């Protein structure tokens, strides 16, 4: 498999965690979202992925974009360890949390949107988008969480949570009002799959941001 990704991209990080958890070896093809006006806009990459976004995964003779679609494909073709619970109610909760983060919080503060709001408004805009989403998320997690987002098994929801908390920290969001989010995030960051997939440890991580 080949993963087209950018070290700092939350969506790419979600997929890297899934690949690490499932023990899938892959090659990284870095796509720099900033350099050369954004390498995602090149003709070559657009031919591969018309959405002009990362990640894209070439696997089993097909190319898949959109992080949750990639994770669900990996889940259906390589089911261990399970990232979607067998119980339909728990599975619905995992998807609900994943969609809230991937569809309701992250897009509002990603690179393409921040470019539109202008340099001087970016920090406030991102903080507002994240706190608004985290207010809902904290409340939901208080009723679904065990050790992780949904019960005591790592799920797709956790793969969405950790990169989003990293974004919150990058945009200097005060996490004090979100004890459940913070606790789960800390527990997850201790796991190897979350460490090896971390933005500070990627082939395209700039030297000054490496860990």
TrEMBL record:
Reactions catalysed according to its record: RX + glutathione = an S-substituted glutathione + a halide anion + H(+); 4-maleylacetoacetate = 4-fumarylacetoacetate
Please name the Pfam families in this protein's record. GST_C_3, GST_N_2
SUPFAM superfamilies named among the record's database cross-references: GST C-terminal domain-like, Thioredoxin-like
Q: Name one GO molecular function term.
A: glutathione transferase activity
What this protein is called in its record is Maleylacetoacetate isomerase
Q: Gene3D superfamilies from the entry?
A: 1.20.1050.10, Glutaredoxin
Q: List, alphabetically, the GO terms of the cellular component aspect.
A: cytoplasm
Tell me the domain of life.
Eukaryota
Q: Where is the GST C-terminal domain?
A: 87-207
* Swiss-Prot/TrEMBL cofactor(s): glutathione
Pathway named in the protein's UniProt entry: Amino-acid degradation; L-phenylalanine degradation; acetoacetate and fumarate from L-phenylalanine: step 5/6
Instruction: Provide the E.C. number(s) assigned to this enzyme.
Output: 2.5.1.18, 5.2.1.2
What biological process terms from GO does the record include? L-phenylalanine catabolic process; L-tyrosine catabolic process
Q: Where in the cell is it found?
A: Cytoplasm
Q: Which UniProt keywords apply?
A: Cytoplasm, Isomerase, Phenylalanine catabolism, Transferase, Tyrosine catabolism
Show the InterPro entries listed in the entry: Glutathione-S-Trfase_C-like, Glutathione-S-Trfase_C_sf, Glutathione_S-Trfase, Glutathione_S-Trfase_N, GST_C, GST_Zeta, GST_Zeta_C, GST_Zeta_N
Ranges of residues in domain GST N-terminal: 1-82
- Lineage, opening ranks: Eukaryota, Metazoa, Chordata, Craniata, Vertebrata
| Entry similarity comment | Belongs to the GST superfamily. Zeta family.
């Amino acid at each position: 498999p080949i993963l087209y990704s950018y070290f700092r991209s939350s969506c790419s990080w979600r997929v890297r965690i899934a690949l690490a958890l499932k023990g899938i070896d892959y090659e990284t093809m870095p796509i720099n979202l900033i350099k050369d006006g954004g390498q995602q806009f090149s003709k070559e990459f657009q031919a591969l992925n018309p959405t002009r976004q990362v990640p894209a995964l070439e696997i089993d003779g097909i190319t898949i974009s959109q992080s949750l679609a990639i994770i669900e494909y990996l889940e259906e073709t390589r089911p261990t360890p399970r990232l979607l619970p067998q119980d339909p109610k728990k599975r619905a909760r995992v998807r609900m949390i994943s969609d809230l983060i991937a569809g309701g919080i992250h897009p509002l503060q990603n690179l393409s949107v921040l470019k539109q709001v202008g340099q001087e408004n970016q920090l406030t805009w991102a903080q507002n988008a994240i706190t608004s989403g985290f207010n809902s998320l904290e409340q939901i997690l208080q009723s679904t969480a065990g050790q992780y987002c949904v019960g005591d098994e790592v799920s797709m929801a956790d793969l969405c949570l950790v990169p989003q908390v990293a974004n919150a920290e990058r945009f200097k969001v005060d996490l004090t009002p979100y004890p459940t989010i913070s606790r789960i995030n800390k527990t997850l960051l201790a796991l190897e799959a979350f460490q090896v997939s971390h933005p500070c440890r990627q082939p395209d991580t700039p030297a000054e941001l490496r860990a």
